[in-house]
Design a protein that fits this description.
three-stranded antiparallel beta sheet, globular, DNA-binding, homodimer
Chain lengths: 256, 256
DNA sequence: GTACGTCGGTGCGGTGCCGTACAGAGTTGG
DNA sequence: CCAACTCTGTACGGCACCGCACCGACGTAC
């Protein structure tokens, strides 16, 4: 199997940025600002203009759909493999979905104006990478649509935790059942039962809002097939560039 | 309310193409081939290269996710408001999802090579429109992810039929319960019960694989809120261009 | 300490859909 | 006109999750 990367190495990497030629990365450097992405930081809000885009390092962001009756559910999540705020790249100033930081961490921020001027409306090689990522995100969202209907809460919980672990690059992060329920589109007690099962099986460990992943492989085993397809799609973006440059595939994928 | 467009007028229109300046539309004309899009025509197949893109007129296409156990579910549908095969625009040669013609009709075909050379890799104004449509399709797919989990089969059936009606531009088209079940991600008998309810309520009429929509407003009333958000997103693409050119908004939207 | 708020575990009746089976109604072909 | 097939309606036990309620464990403030 692959060896897990050291946390220090992972901490300051975004796969899109890492796949850029050094010269282009240097050109964009003045517009990229290192940021501590705190939990709950809003990236897109329905009806409001998108102010910044984010290249996450070890932060994880979620796109959720909220219904008028208060129920909500996640339709996509992204981390180091992507760019939060791709709607700007698609020539939009706002979007009806909500996107925010789910698991706190670090990342690079670029303002909408800088992004449009220096990336979107130029011939930056980053555009090709973003196009591929938008496609991967569309695939991920499509599969989420299927997964939400066809698979059980237990399977989806395993998939979700495994994918978060891959993106956060660490075993422990803050996470409440209430919050998980909103992501999975189920009620809180349903999550409690499912999470408790995983805890008893020795896969995870809970303690008042803090989750610790004990056995990532076990989670993958418990997840539905969607896990493999989603993660394979993401890694395929970076497969072409791997031979050209240093391997950026510290992105973990198991059982693909 | 709005008056329904005459079928003849609707029959040869795709909103993306209609929104183009006349000169650009004329420039692309040699590459666009009128086609009778028959039921089941495959547009994207997992693992295989995408050969053609389609601008539907009154045909409706579906993107579905298929699981290894044989179950399947739709993650997005598109018709006259979009372009089937946008993955090519996103620099992909293939995609893991399956896209095919759901309701037969007409449309314009363009080969992948022609599209890349004459649209994607040029500064055609069509690129801006497609970007906006890709965003709308992403929003639609995201909402489908939520809808599939949070809403009942009855609500989703109403939404689906109403959206198909908007795109097909006619009241009658071939449709079997078996097929609807695959779209909604439920079992066939579940669809039979739900469809029978709508029939008894006088909203639709079934006859051995042929569906006739009797009361579109009734379907919209029975649909979940997702209907309005999805359709509003699509019409918003064409709102900007409406003042500039002739109104292409024969796309029906009610209760938005 | 006591009081309070937050978070997680559990129980239980209700319901929506599953999974499967079967019957009837229409359609096609000899 | 009968046989075979396709499509739709219906029935029923089972299960996953809902919806709600309650309790206990832990953390924090005073």
């Amino acid at each position: 199997m692959e060896t897990a990367p050291s946390p220090e190495k992972r901490k300051y990497e975004n796969l899109l940025l890492a796949a850029l030629p050094a010269a282009e990365r240097a050109r964009l450097d003045p517009y990229l600002h290192f940021e501590n992405m705190k939990s709950g930081l809003s990236i897109t809000t329905p009806g409001e203009p998108i102010q910044n885009l984010y290249f996450p390092f070890d932060a994880v962001t979620s796109t959720v759909q909220e219904m008028s009756d208060g129920s909500s559910i996640e339709s996509g999540l992204m981390g180091l493999e992507g760019l939060a705020g791709v709607q700007v790249w698609l020539r939009q100033t706002s979007t009806p979905s909500k996107t925010f930081v789910q698991i706190p961490g670090t990342g690079m921020r670029i303002s909408t104006e800088d992004f449009i001027r220096e990336v979107r409306d130029t011939s930056s090689p980053l555009n090709d990478l973003i196009a591929a990522y938008v496609h991967a995100f569309l695939v991920l969202t499509s599969l989420t649509a299927a997964c939400n209907r066809l698979h059980t809460v237990d399977e989806r919980l395993c998939r979700w935790l495994a994918m978060c672990y891959n993106r956060a690059g660490r075993r422990e992060f803050p996470l409440r059942h209430e919050f998980l329920a909103q992501m999975l589109g189920v009620h809180r007690p349903t999550v409690s039962v499912a999470a408790n099962m995983l805890q008893k099986a020795g896969l995870i460990q809970y303690q008042r809002g803090n989750l610790r992943i004990l056995n990532p492989e076990g989670l993958i085993d418990g997840a539905c097939e969607c896990y493999s397809i989603m993660e394979a799609q993401v890694t395929s973006i970076y497969r072409q560039t791997r031979s050209e440059k240093k391997s950026p595939s510290e992105f973990r994928l198991r059982r693909a």
